[in-house]
Specification:
37% of the residues lie in helices and 17% in strands. With 126 residues, it is an alpha+beta fold. A five-stranded mixed beta sheet has the order 1-2-5-4-3. Helix 1 runs parallel beside helix 5 and helix 3 packs across helix 5.
Length: 126
């Protein structure tokens, strides 16, 4: 939740998908079914599209790029560059995936360390 909130507070993140955020349309359902805990995967759109999302991902230090998510270490995948490379930009949008969309699987690292890594990489990505 802390990582999702930190992402949501940034001007260079267009949207954050995490069901435990107060802004989530699924917040009430998450509260009822999951006791307000949203799980370990956060989706977010990096402003600037594909090139900035890739630049951001390349600058992460603690969080490692991966094609699939899960495990004890935090992993990230930029959909347009890894899992949906066969789609043209208009096909990505039709599928509901922006060119800046990333999925972050949060591992066992401290939230503050992850936030620092994300913040630094976004700042360096321009």
């Amino acid at each position: 939740l802390r990582v999702a909130q930190a992402l949501e507070a940034r001007h260079d993140i267009e949207s954050v998908s995490y069901p435990a955020l107060d802004s989530s349309p699924d917040r009430r359902l998450t509260e009822r079914l999951l006791g307000g805990r949203g799980g370990g995967v956060v989706g977010f759109d990096v402003a600037g599209g594909r090139s900035r999302a890739r630049a951001f991902q390349e600058r992460l230090g603690l969080i490692k790029p991966a094609a699939s998510l899960g495990g004890t270490h935090s992993l990230i995948v930029h959909a347009a560059s890894v899992t949906h490379t066969q789609l043209r930009p208009e096909e990505l949008l039709a599928a509901g995936i922006s060119e800046g969309f990333c999925r972050l699987s949060i591992g066992l690292e401290e939230a503050g360390d992850l936030i620092a890594d994300i913040t630094s990489a976004l700042d360096e990505a321009g």
